[in-house]
Structure formats: C-alpha cells, structure tokens
Amino acid sequence: MASSCLLHHPLSSNSAVSRKFSPVAAQPGKRPVLVSISCSSSSGISSTYDPSQLVVDTQPSEAIRREAPRPFAAKYVPFGSDFNSGESYSLDEIVYRSSSGDLLDVQHDMEALKSFSGAYWRDLFDSRVGGTAWPYGSGVWSKKEWVLPEIDPEDIVSAFEGNSNLFWAERFGKKFVDMNDLWVKHCGISHTGSFKDLGMTVLVSQVNRLRRRLNRPVVGVGCASTGDTSAALSAYCAAAGIPSIVFLPADKISMAQLVQPIANGAFVISIDTDFDGCMKLIREVTAELPIYLANSLNSLRLEGQKTAAIEILQQFDWEVPDWVIIPGGNLGNIYAFYKGFQMCKELGLVGRTPRLVCAQSANANPLYRHYVSDWTDFKPIKANKTFASAIQIGDPVSIDRAVYAIKNSDGIVEEATEAELMDAMAMADSTGMFVCPHTGVALVALMKLRRRGVIRPGDRTVVVSTAHGLKFTQAKIDYHSKEIEGMPCRFANPPVSVRADFGSVMDVLMKHLESDGGRQQ
C-alpha cells in the first residue's frame, strides 16, 4: 500500500486539493507518479505570502507548482539574452538557431523560481535523493522545476540517471599532487557509461512529448557522435520507441562505443570523415527531414547536464568547491556546469560559484589556443587523432558558450599531450580508479595547475570524469603492453609470463615483493 505524504502551506488556496498516486502499484502501461499530496486552507494567498513557510514532507512537485504565484516556465532565447528577451521560442518549437543564426539558450522564469527560498529548494532537492516516486529519484528529474518545468511526468523517458559517485581521490591526491581534498565526479557511472545520459533524458523526453502529446511529425532523432552521444541517444530512444539515426566518423571511436548504438537498434551510418564532417552533414539532413537534432547545438541537453553541478553541491552539503575541472570537446558541458552553479547562486542556494577549468587534448585544442591568444579571433582547427576520442573536435559548436563560462567563472583552459593524458589515466587507475582518457586530460590540467601554484594544496577540487573506463579498454591494453609508438608509457604494468612450476613462480614473486612495485604507497 502506498504511503501517505503531505505538503502543507498556511496560505494555500480556498479550495482543498488532494491527489493520490501510487509509486509502487502502477497499472500496466502506466508510469508510477507522485505519492499523495494534500493542500488546504481557508484563506487565499495574501500579499505577504512567504514561500519559506512551506513544510516539505516528501515529493511536492505538483504542490509546489500549485503554490507558485505564477507558473514555472522555460523557453528558448538567443544566447546571452534573459527570459524577457524580445526574441523567444517555445520549447515545443523545433528550432536550433536564433533569427540571426546564433546559438539559443534555455532560460527559465527566474522570478517565478525566486518565489521559493534557497533553503526551500535545497530541502526539496535533498528530499528526492534516492526516492522511488517517478521521476524524481533521477538525479536530473529531481530538479524538474529547473530543467523542463512544464513537461508531464508521463512523457519523461528516464533510466534514473545521475546521482553518480563523488569519489574522494585520497591516494591520488596525496601521492601525485599533494592534496587532501581532491574529488572525482564519476559521471561515467551511468546508464550508458557517460555523462551524456544527463542531457539525453531531457532531449528524448521532450521529443516524446512532441510525438505523443502534440502529434508533431518527428520521424526520429539524429546525431553526429564521437561515441558517447550516440550511445545515450540510441538507448533513450529505444526505451521510448523512437527511431534513432547516428552519424559516426569511420574508424575513430572505440569498439565498445560503436557497439552500443548498434545493440540499441539505431540506424548507424559510418562516414569517411571526422566528427566535424559528421556534424556538418547531420545539420544539413535535419534541415531537410523531420529528424530532431540531438547534438549540443540543441540547448535542451545542457539543461540535464547542468544538474551534475547542482548534484556536486548537494554531495558537499551545499558547500561550494574551489575548483571544478572539466574535459572539453564540443564545449557544451563547461557551460552546462557554469549554468548549474550560477542558478544555485542566483536562487540563493549557495553564496558563490567555483572557478572552472576546461581541459583539452593538445591534438584537439581550439579553445586552449583561443585562451592563450587572449581571446583574439577564434579559429577552428583540424583535430588530430587523440586517445581522448570523444573530445577530438576542432570546430566546437559551443565555443561561445565555453568562452562565456570561462570568463564569468574566472576560469582557465589547459591542455594535455597524448603521453601526459595516458600517463595520468594510468596513475589514476593505480590508485583504485578506472578512468577514461578524457579524465586523464582533466587530471593533467590539475597537475599542471598544482605545479604552478594556481591550485593550492588545501583547495577543494573536483575533477569531472565524463565516461567509464570500460569503454576504452583497448587504449589501456595498448598502454600497459607498451605498444603505443613513440610513447614511453611510464606507468605501464604488463603481465609477467612464467613457466608452470613452483620455483619459477616463487622467483618472480620474490623479485616483485623486494622491489618498489611490491610496496604500495
């Protein structure tokens, strides 16, 4: 039997409101939704209405919407504009650029959100962590009012993504960078093994709404991908019964990444070009066919990705870290993190925001070049091959978003060579992690900033790990086998071949135990 949950407000509307839903005993074909809500009062909302008086027992999404002086809302506006911009578009419109051809951004009605105090939002978000009421147990949809406030829970496509581990990297911090407050946000411990799930649940949910509720003629969802986007898109589309189309650069992603969209039933087109070429083609195709574009040119995905920033604050009991280091390729994620932190500050949940660092591979570093040139004219580059294949992008769509985030967070851009990023990945793995090469890029940025004294020993620092290391096993095998041409592989740990007799085994064991390799530090 479903438990009873109440949300009371002393100044609720005259007519009593009572709704009950079961989070467990849902009927076949129906998603479980909100646990029971009850609101009643004998007086109307007065001019002295104080939302901070709300008492939260559990999942009050419907009640909070009813108590707000005006409805929560979000819409597309030209990037850099606010909610009241003269040019805006409903989220139900299929539009990716402003009238002048610039990027769009999703802006929320911040005045409506400010009707509730920062303390109230903190309590609300915390009350939903680990819950089972649909869809609020998701790390993304636990912040539904800040993501897609107007979508019906019935239209949401979720795998309860988010709520990923914030790992205290104690051994790595002490051994390699002389830090005791270093953390790794494992966004890759997720449904499809990367942070892309956070944005894809939002985008595919909106497409589901367009198809099911608004009868829009969207025949499928398409993306260009270096691997992780296609995996997330195909999985969420498969869960919703929506066709997915994927453009992949031939021979430029790992086999583990390639098999995911294939297994989830996507129509995969392997194209003899790089990511930037695939991106150009998918934009041309979606301009001609009713295929919804899923790349980060579409700003909806960033609404889900920004929740990782809010989640970090929750995991620190709403204390703000000093630094957050994020790998960057197409550069939407650095802006998403900035946006999440900034919303928390503007709405009173925290008093400041962290400094952001964007870490790029030296083989695909257009933002880094732009940064070290003191932000002179940006020039796209031809990205060279990198083990950090998901960020092998030379003409990033979200360059303007990234520059905005770096400038407004007093941020920094760093780069990592191939040898540096692979060594850093191996160093992290040797301390109990199992990270992707992109996390290696971010760890290199950390080590360089520590050596220069920019990041201090006592600074609370979070490194964002964007994908699971199991997607990149071949790169790890090649490293530890020392089979990468021109790379010293300084931390390689190859297996030792021994004859099948006791004496031979004892000889190699004793040699190992007497060496530094036999003594963990």
TrEMBL record:
Pfam families noted in UniProt: PALP
The protein's annotated pathway: Amino-acid biosynthesis; L-threonine biosynthesis; L-threonine from L-aspartate: step 5/5
Chief subcellular location: plastid
InterPro entries: Cys_Synth/Cystath_Beta-Synth (IPR050214), Ser/Thr_deHydtase_PyrdxlP-BS (IPR000634), Thr_synthase-like (IPR004450), TrpB-like_PALP (IPR001926), TrpB-like_PALP_sf (IPR036052)
Cofactor entry: pyridoxal 5'-phosphate
Residue(s) carrying N6-(pyridoxal phosphate)lysine: K196
Domain Tryptophan synthase beta chain-like PALP, chain residue ranges per copy: 158-466
Protein localization: Plastid, Chloroplast
Sorted UniProt keywords: Allosteric enzyme, Amino-acid biosynthesis, Chloroplast, Lyase, Plastid, Pyridoxal phosphate, S-adenosyl-L-methionine, Threonine biosynthesis, Transit peptide
Enzymatic class: lyase
A GO cellular-component term linked to this record: chloroplast
Catalyzed reaction equations: O-phospho-L-homoserine + H2O = L-threonine + phosphate
GO molecular function: pyridoxal phosphate binding; threonine synthase activity
EC number from the UniProt entry: 4.2.3.1
GO biological process: threonine biosynthetic process
Role of this protein: Catalyzes the gamma-elimination of phosphate from L-phosphohomoserine and the beta-addition of water to produce L-threonine.
Similarity-based family: Belongs to the threonine synthase family.
Subunit structure: Homodimer.
Name listed for the protein in its UniProt record: threonine synthase
Organism: Trapa natans (Water chestnut)
